[in-house]
Design a protein that fits this description.
The protein has 546 residues and is α/β, with parallel strands linked by helices. It is 56% helix and 12% strand.
Length: 546
């Protein structure tokens, strides 16, 4: 636990702390800017926080860079440290006189606190566990309807996971989450291999076709096995089937050849036609029509010759294309003829049966690969779905347990502090979102009351080592309710830190408790630091501080 904070800039030089409730008292005038919130921010600072130097920039501006010495006690042993404002990421391990012995980094220090406080939850830092519940004016965790948020834009899922870790229940979720991640990774590997064509990529339709193909090919092989003694007859049947398929392909090519050859013949005829005409060709026409304009006829005929020349170029191009297509068709027909000759010539050759069996075996293996690949992928999809279902089931169970714990805890605190008539806030947890509803009054003060209730419920139910609540959280809460809350804080042996002023209004019992549990009392004339930089304020006096 935290034992003390020392600073040469303090009026009192040292503030000592004790188990249970630690109170920073203000005066009966509720004077502001005297150091109540600053001291709580310093508690956050020695617990590894960093908000002090971001929010309270005026401290360094007015006092210059300085350092804080502080001590924690664990199992009866004091551990002393120093943290400077100029190098806040480095802490120094000190001896009993606060002489520096060695330096460590902030994350090492936080890891030490996590271990020393016995926070064993893997994957949760000390600051993640404790920082949320140290609520001081200036920090970003004072959102009334978002008690799980360390800062406003933090993802709900991260907030929920952090709460689960605080309750020590995340390991069961982590194991199932890891199983789901592993299944997801394995499925992605399979699909990546398929996309790179390292393994077959098979759709459901392809899978169905593969099963049909496998059945047919297996029947084919079985027939060969059964008729192996009379393989010649079987071979003839096989060859006849192959020749028939080849003949059908050849007939298609022959029909196409006839069409192409006909088109080529017509092109040749068009290219062979002659129509060269000149003025002498019109003499006979002049005998019958002496007045005809032969020059005009020659011009018209010259135009037709020009058109014919253009068409002739297109016909030549068409001839080349048709001739090339005809050549390809002839090559195809020749190839089929060769296959037919080979098939017909192998009737008496038993090795052709071996070739047929080999081809069927290859096709069968390919079909089986398609089938097995699809079934392998589906098995991984099923495994992923089951892993995700198991994760969702255990997470929902754990969230329900935590939700019940928090809500019943807040209900019990409200009943003790306010009475059975008052409704308590309600936390609702889902997988990736949460809702915190404050019933009845919705004013700022009452809403902050919800943060106090939430922290105390978690504080009572978990290993959370400390909480801190600034005076702003108690504003607008009835005096009787605050008085009862003080009694509840005091019953908890773990350290809590609160700031309050005007304590007499909470009644003699609460006021006495607050006085007995106080670690310092600040006032208009007894501020925290040796320098009071408030405008128009009297100078600080060490003799006024308690």
């Amino acid at each position: 636990m935290l034992r003390e904070i020392r600073c040469e800039k303090f009026c009192n030089r040292v503030v000592r702390f004790h188990p249970g409730l630690n109170v920073v008292l203000g005066d009966e005038n509720a004077t502001n800017s005297i150091g109540k919130s600053t001291l709580l921010m310093l508690v956050d600072f020695v617990f590894g926080g960093s908000t002090l130097l971001d929010w309270n920039k005026d401290i360094v501006a007015e006092l210059g860079h300085h350092h804080y010495d502080f001590a924690f006690e664990f199992s009866g042993e004091l551990h002393r440290f120093r943290r400077e404002t100029i190098t806040p990421e480095t802490l120094y391990v000190c001896d009993a006189d606060y002489k520096v012995q060695s330096a460590i980094q902030l994350d090492e220090f936080n890891a030490f606190l996590k271990s020393a406080y016995g926070l064993a939850e893997p994957g949760q830092s000390f600051r993640a566990a404790v920082g949320l519940h140290l609520r001081v004016w200036g920090k970003t965790n004072l959102i009334p309807d978002e008690p799980l948020h360390v800062f406003p834009k933090q993802k709900d899922k991260d907030c929920i996971d952090n709460l689960v870790k605080t309750y020590g229940k995340f390991e069961a979720i982590r194991e199932r989450d890891q199983a789901a991640r592993t299944a997801d990774t394995e499925l992605k590997v399979i699909r990546a291999a398929a996309s790179k064509q390292l393994i077959p990529k098979v759709t459901k339709t392809g899978y169905t076709n593969a099963k049909v193909q496998i059945a047919g090919l297996e029947r084919d092989l079985e027939e060969v096995r059964q008729n192996l003694a009379s393989y010649a007859t079987s071979l003839s049947a096989v060859i006849n089937k192959e020749v028939l398929e080849l003949k059908e392909r050849k007939d298609d090519l022959l029909q196409r050849r006839m069409i192409v050859a006909g088109r080529l013949q017509r092109v040749d005829r068009n290219l062979g036609g002659k129509r060269a005409l000149h003025g002498g060709n019109f003499l006979d026409l002049q005998r019958f029509f002496p007045e005809i304009n032969t020059e005009r006829l020659v011009e018209v005929e010259a135009f037709h010759d020009g058109v014919a020349r253009i068409l002739k170029e297109q016909l030549k191009l068409s001839k080349e294309q048709l001739a090339e297509e005809l050549s390809l068709i002839d090559l195809g027909i020749a190839g089929i003829d060769a296959e037919m000759a080979a098939a017909l010539g192998s009737v008496e050759q038993p090795e052709s049966l071996v070739d047929h069996v080999y081809k069927v075996a290859l096709s069968l293996q390919a079909a089986r690969n398609n089938r097995d690949g699809y079934e392998h992928e589906q098995a991984h999809i099923d495994a992923l779905n089951k892993a995700r279902e198991a994760l969702a089931k255990v997470k929902q169970r754990i969230l329900n347990e935590i939700e019940t714990s928090v809500n019943e805890g807040m209900r019990k605190i409200v009943s003790e502090a306010v009475g059975e008539h008052r409704k308590s806030p309600r936390l609702s947890l889902a997988d990736t979102t949460y809702n915190f509803e404050v019933f009845e009054d919705t004013g700022t003060g009452t809403a902050y009351f919800g943060l106090v209730l939430f922290d105390m419920a978690v504080f009572r139910a978990t290993s959370l080592p400390a909480i801190a609540h600034d005076s702003v959280l108690f504003k607008n809460i009835s005096n009787d309710s605050v008085a009862h809350l003080v009694g509840l804080y005091a019953k908890i042996q773990k350290q809590s830190f609160i700031a309050l002023d005007e304590i007499q209004k909470y009644g003699p019992v609460a006021a006495q408790t607050l006085q007995e549990q106080s670690v310092i009392q600040l006032s208009d004339r007894a501020v925290l630091y040796v320098k009071d930089w408030r405008p128009s304020r009297p100078p600080a006096s060490r003799s006024d501080a308690v």
